[in-house]
What we know:
4 copies of one chain form a homotetramer. Chain A is built from 9 helices and no strands. By secondary structure, chain A is mainly alpha-helical. Chain A has a single domain (about 5-160), classed as Orthogonal Bundle (YutG-like). In chain A, helix 2 crosses helix 9 (about 140-160). The longest helix of chain A has 21 residues, at about 140-160. The termini of chain A are far apart.
Amino acid sequence: xxxxxxxxxxxxxxxxxxxxxxxxxxxxxxxxxxxxxxxxxxxxxxxxxxxxxxxxxxxxxxxxxxxxxxxxxxxxxxxxxxxxxxxxxxxxxxxxxxxxxxxxxxxxxxxxxxxxxxxxxxxxxxxxxxxxxxxxxxxxxxxxxxxxxxxxxxxxxxxxxx
Amino acid sequence: xxxxxxxxxxxxxxxxxxxxxxxxxxxxxxxxxxxxxxxxxxxxxxxxxxxxxxxxxxxxxxxxxxxxxxxxxxxxxxxxxxxxxxxxxxxxxxxxxxxxxxxxxxxxxxxxxxxxxxxxxxxxxxxxxxxxxxxxxxxxxxxxxxxxxxxxxxxxxxxxxx
Amino acid sequence: xxxxxxxxxxxxxxxxxxxxxxxxxxxxxxxxxxxxxxxxxxxxxxxxxxxxxxxxxxxxxxxxxxxxxxxxxxxxxxxxxxxxxxxxxxxxxxxxxxxxxxxxxxxxxxxxxxxxxxxxxxxxxxxxxxxxxxxxxxxxxxxxxxxxxxxxxxxxxxxxxx
Amino acid sequence: xxxxxxxxxxxxxxxxxxxxxxxxxxxxxxxxxxxxxxxxxxxxxxxxxxxxxxxxxxxxxxxxxxxxxxxxxxxxxxxxxxxxxxxxxxxxxxxxxxxxxxxxxxxxxxxxxxxxxxxxxxxxxxxxxxxxxxxxxxxxxxxxxxxxxxxxxxxxxxxxxx
Lengths: 162, 162, 162, 162
């Protein structure tokens, strides 16, 4: 089997957009993490790093898998009781964090604390994602962790570069 | 939301059975790992430990999620290109190993080498699972890693107990 | 070799005390994480869960290893350049977060966000630990991550129980 | 603090050499893993990939930390009871596998099964390392896992490239 990860990257970006998240939304979270460390950091610079994170195979695979799970839960293709667990973003489920961790790890463990921080404080678009999920309009069990993890990994990549 | 993990354990066991794997099949893999260390070990003893592994929330969640992904790929509910990646058990996908790792970790990192070993040598029922997957009769991308990981975790639990 | 992990737990508690951290200090961090979710939670209750976390083999091993590394860096037994990396808590080192992750994982991945949160905001005694480290009075490269991880794991354990 | 990871890479290579392991020894393990998949693979090719793995910050940090722990256990600088745990390569210690996992993860989770396989079968120089450790001539608790993990990560990198 031959898989072209340049094409798959675009699929991942399209899936995120379909779920209401642009790369700029993610870069804004990265910016908010990093402004406390670097005064002169710009959104463009963060966006560039988000783009690099999204070029990584592990990240693309995690995005495709997580968002597909969210969508199939919404559409009712996932069997009960897993469907209800996902629709309610059940706090002891934990597989969403497992996928997030595989994203964070791409630039080493220094992304770990950034992830926890943005997830807990629901920085930027994470608040919207979470609100929609709480109103049961959408199943965003994986989406919020994926978005937070990409933003945190991009912050980690910036720390590696600076 | 209230989730009863005793019920969910039974759902996980039923899903494994539906995919052709009994707890005894898993215990046989554990037995093969452990006979080189302990002469007097029995299948019953291994089965007991497999049962304990399957009582853990993280394990149950990983089983439900992985097997649902396999089944939805077969049924065509998962969108392309992820569907083809799963149907072909594409070697660079890696999310199956990520889920496996979350199972192994339940009894600490000592299960890690056992998992790699049984996965590589396709011990016991892992050979059947893999063959069916190769013939494209079934999508077992997650199933083989899940079964290997439970067997390895059970071996780790035995090492902790002895 | 026979290792008694009840004795080792006491060694770990003594090492933490020697580095200026009591179990009550850790429980206070757990309390601060959890008061936003449960009104009626007490310090005693958190302390009980911290105690359970510290009974786990993986946690004890991580505590012994991390604190020994901090101490040997201070005492000059660790060779350069690793010694300087540890003495300066170099942000790209990352092995401290790796050990922290092995602690958090003991109660599943739900501890992950709590860890990032307390680490970033330097909740409770984490501020003191970090200040001492910044003044180069002490090498606390591992200590702060270990303490944050135990507090986060205890919060995860409470979430599992409630 | 400024750290030059090109220099640190050389320090890591020197430390491995000091403990009796050359990069060629590691490449031989990678070769043995990969010959079953690719007929025409050469030692030079594997060596090149081992070299790339050793350029990664996370890998260098894990090598420096693990080998320092082995050496300080031998020299008696590590306090009891941790010293005895390391000198005896106590099977429930697990922190050696935790460090190994951070190495493997650098090229995604596909290195995981290779690591378990070579660790279990003690491929190539892993047998020597293990024998010396069993005779208590040396403390190689971390060394064997580090070497196996680098070899497995290199195999993972080859799979990504091919």
